[in-house]
Amino acid sequence: MSAADEVLDVVDRDDRVTGQAPRGEVYAGGLIHRCVFVQARDAQGRIFVHRRTASKLVFPSAYDMFVGGVLGAGESYAQAALREAEEELGVQGLAQPVPLFKFLYEGPGGAWWSYVHEVRCDLRVRPQESEVAWHAWLSEEELAQRVADGAWEWVPDGLEAYRRLRAHRESGQ
């Protein structure tokens, strides 16, 4: 089965399931669905940053500071956060990512409910080759500089999640 054939829950603006459709139809029709973002940090507090492969359906070859992806039909945000983090980082036995907040992303690529999580990864990563073309662990300062200088093309939904996460942390929540 190709990624475009994977069945997703379609949801409304209140994140209630209204139906199901293959991912390709969801993307083509601009239907609202669900996604998880997981910020992975190593023992030194550095953030896992990667460039997506050119074969990705959405935002190919763009950089991201989150691992994650869409939820399959019937999958919970918590289940997807752990599954996606382990898949993309290429690890097993990762702690359950901690949920932080949820928001409706509306922008380039469409609209989806986005649940932001964080997890500490002390395991040796072996990123999934079909998802990750390049990776590094960057300090908070290095990441902020890379975002500010505009030299890298970032995935727009991840960039929005990053900005909201920074505001979330600054607010002390």
Structural account:
There is one protein chain. The protein has 173 residues and is α+β, with helices and mostly antiparallel strands. It contains four helices and nine strands, in the order ββαββββαβββαα. It has a four-stranded mixed β-sheet with strand order 6-3-8-7, sandwiched between helices. A three-stranded antiparallel β-sheet has the order 5-4-9. Strands 1-2 form a two-stranded antiparallel sheet. A hairpin with a 2-residue loop joins strand 7 and strand 8 (110-120). The longest helix has 15 residues, at 156-170. The mean pLDDT is 94.
Q: In a nutshell, what does this entry contain?
A:
It contains four helices and nine strands, in the order E-E-H-E-E-E-E-H-E-E-E-H-H. It has 173 residues and is of the alpha+beta class.
Give the averaged pLDDT, no decimals. Answer: 94
Number of helices: 4
Estimated share of beta-strand residues: 25-35%
Total DSSP E strands: 9
Q: Reading side by side through the largest sheet, how are the strands ordered?
A: 6-3-8-7
Q: What's the helical proportion of residues? A: 25-40%
Unreliable residue stretches: none
Shape: globular
Largest sheet: 4 strands, mixed
Q: Structural class of the helices, strands and pairings?
A: alpha+beta
Give me the strand/helix succession: EEHEEEEHEEEHH
> In angstroms, what is the radius of gyration?
15 Å
Distance between the termini: 41 Å
